[in-house]
Design a protein that fits this description.
This protein is of the alpha/beta class. It has two domains: 101 residues, Translation factors (Elongation Factor Tu (Ef-tu), domain 3), CATH 2.40.30.10; 174 residues, Rossmann fold, CATH 3.40.50. The strands form three sheets. The protein has a six-stranded parallel beta sheet, with helices on both faces. The protein has a three-stranded antiparallel beta sheet with strand order 1-2-5, with no helix packed on it. A three-stranded antiparallel beta sheet has the order 4-3-6. The longest helix has 22 residues. The protein starts with a helix and ends with a strand. The mean pLDDT is 80. It is found in: Cell membrane. One of its GO terms (cellular component) is NADPH oxidase complex. Its cofactor is FAD. It catalyses: NADPH + 2 O2 = 2 superoxide + NADP(+) + H(+).
């Protein structure tokens, strides 16, 4: 028995030593940005840190807890000279981080007063394969929208730098959330991308649909009254916010008709129930003919 146990234990100890060594490397917080509804953005730098789109890291703040590590998806792009995470204040640890960064104070916080941060990672996810397809469907549910902030930023940098060599030609983005106000920082990113794509006369490159699932009668009435305005009253985007949940069967059939003979990557960051639905739709809408349309499903659950 010991022969079978020693090998895995040795590999496990090596992995723990590597993670401990990485967590001891110096991390500098370069900027703390306070977003609406108690969401903070930490922009950081670390020597030798290399990331890909959609990856995540483990974060420890000794000023809050010397033992707790928490995973956060990276919201920056590999092309940027820093890496960032967005933290929504929803518990004791995040509240402690919020206060440690001086976000509860009105005056300007000096950089040397910011807490020390330990970072372990980055670690890979399915989102890294986005650039392997010409057409992709990105589906984010609630907080699951964060990996696609990194993806959309990176797509924009690549598009501006060398659009002709970018394999990715079309993005269908779906964002399902109960309350868009909780993620206003992401709506700001979409507004920026929307404006820049229109300036380059390529507004069709990114098609996005925002579904507000936690609506009530008051919201619905307000939505109907202002539906004819140029921009959406909730997000400020030209694309109107939709109420309820998408009809996935219709969405898949429409995309299959628009891209015959293509391999379409379907990427989800969301709950297991939604993953089952998208997986079934990917299978049922893929053709048996190798030359036909095929949906390739990728997921990460929370």
């Amino acid at each position: 028995t010991w022969k079978w146990v020693v090998g895995p234990m040795f590999l496990y100890l090596c992995e723990r030593l590597v993670r401990f060594w990485r967590s001891q490397q110096k991390v500098v917080i370069t900027k703390v940005v306070i977003h609406p509804f108690k969401t903070i953005e930490l922009q950081m730098m670390k020597k030798g840190f290399k990331m890909e789109v959609g990856q995540y890291i483990f974060v420890k703040c000794p000023a809050v807890s010397k033992l707790e590590w928490h995973p956060f998806t990276l919201t920056s792009a590999p092309e940027e000279d820093y890496f960032s995470i967005h933290v929504r204040i929803v518990g004791d640890w995040t509240e402690g981080l919020f206060n440690a960064c001086g976000c509860d104070k009105q005056e300007f916080q000096e950089a040397w007063k910011l807490p020390k941060i330990a970072v372990d990672g980055p670690f890979g996810t399915a989102s890294e394969d986005v650039f392997s397809y010409e057409t992709v469907m990105l589906v984010g549910a609630g907080i699951g929208v964060t990996p696609f902030a990194s993806v959309l930023k990176s797509v924009w940098y690549k598009y501006c730098h060398d659009a002709t060599n970018l394999k990715l030609k079309k993005i269908y983005f779906y964002w399902l959330c109960r309350d868009t106000h909780a993620f206003e920082w992401f709506a700001d990113l979409l507004q920026s991308l929307e404006a820049q794509m229109q300036e380059r006369n390529n507004a069709d490159f990114l098609s996005y649909n925002i579904y507000l699932t936690g609506w009530d009668e008051t919201q619905a009435t307000h939505f109907v009254v202002h539906h004819e305005e140029e921009k959406d009253v909730i997000t400020g985007l030209k694309q109107k916010t939709l109420y309820g949940r998408p009809n996935w069967e219709n969405e898949f059939k429409t995309i299959a008709e628009r891209h015959p003979g293509s391999r379409i990557g379907v990427f989800l960051c969301g709950p297991e129930g939604l993953a089952d639905t998208l997986n079934k739709q990917s299978i049922s809408n893929s053709e048996a003919d190798p030359r036909g349309v095929h949906f390739i499903f990728n997921k990460e659950n929370f």
